[in-house]
Every structure is written in structure tokens, then in C-alpha cells.
Design goal:
Layout (H helix, E strand, L loop, with lengths): L2 H15 L6 H7 L1 H17 L3 H15 L2 E2 L4 E2 L4 E2 L6 E2 L4 E2 L4 E2 L4 E3 L11 E2 L4 E2 L4 E3 L3 E2 L4 E2 L4 E2 L7 E5 L2 E5 L6 H6 L6
Parallel strand pairs: 1-4, 2-5, 3-6, 4-7, 5-8, 6-9, 7-10, 8-11, 9-12, 10-13, 12-14
Antiparallel strand pairs: 14-15
Length: about 190
Amino acid sequence: MGMIGRLREDVAAARRRDPAARSGLEVALLYPGLHAIWAHRVWHALWRSGFRFPARMGSQVSRWLTGIEIHPGARIGRRFFIDHGMGVVIGETAEIGDDVMLYHGVTLGGRTRDHGKRHPTLEDGVAVGAGAKILGPVRIGARSVIGANAVVTRDAPPDSVLVGIPAKARPRDADESDRALLSVPDYSI
């Protein structure tokens, strides 16, 4: 898929996930989460090519402009969407699958200063509620939902719902939608 195709795919993903999106033009021009992702792709390419300092500098400029900090070393899949975005932090060794959605204030952070894998892996289709903190080299299984303000420090299997401090996982019911899980008071702190 070419660059224009990826941009269109990102805009379409944002429109699918945000009921407030009125048009593709509005999304492309006014959504800082989308701008942060687009900038990350440039900085990530520089990072992988060995231009580490310019990549870090560019990511800091993106942070200043969008309020979203994505380390250029983080690996991010397709159709990733950050809704609202302010205060999102994604660490260097974080890995994010396809069709993942984060709300504002989410941290994909580390718990150690050791080298190597220090940040979370979110598999395909994960949704993370506002203010959630996912810390350390944990793996969150595909199609899982993490409630608002949860603090996750342990792996979770696919199709889980994680809530609380520390977060505890339970199996996701077949009829539970991401939107319902992220907005029902029972799943937020």
C-alpha cells in the first residue's frame, strides 16, 4: 500500500472509531492523534535507518505540537488511532498491533532502566481507556479491553477485560463491544 493509501486508511479508521468525526477533511486537519501517528512514521523510519538523534529531535517537536509522546523506536501497526490524545506516552520498545485504539492519558511505559524490552506489547484490536497505565514488558492479548485508569503490570490473554489497580483480567463476554466496555461505569475506576 502506498503512502496516500495509508493516509486514507488512517482517516477512515479514525472516522469509524470516533462518532464525533464529521468528515475526512476534519479528521485529517484537526485530529492531533492522527498527526502524531503520521509524524511517528517519519521519525521511526529515521530511527531504523540509524539517524537516532534527528529521529528523537523530530519526535520531541511532534510532542510539543500534539501533546502526544511516541518514541521513534516504538513499533506501531496499521489503523492505530489515538482519540483526543493529550498526555499519551508510548515508550521506545513498545509494540502495537493493528486496529488498536488509545484514549487520552494512556501510558505504555517501562518499570526498569535496564536495556532490552521494557515496554508493553498490545496485540491486534486492543482498546485502552483514558488514563490507563500499562507498565513493563507485558503482553496484552488480541481484542482485549483495558478500562479507564487501570494499572496493568501483568500479561493478559486474548479477549480479556482488565480493570482496577492493579488490574485484574477476566474473560470478555461474547456480546460486549469495545465502546460499551469503555463507557460503562462498572469498568472504570
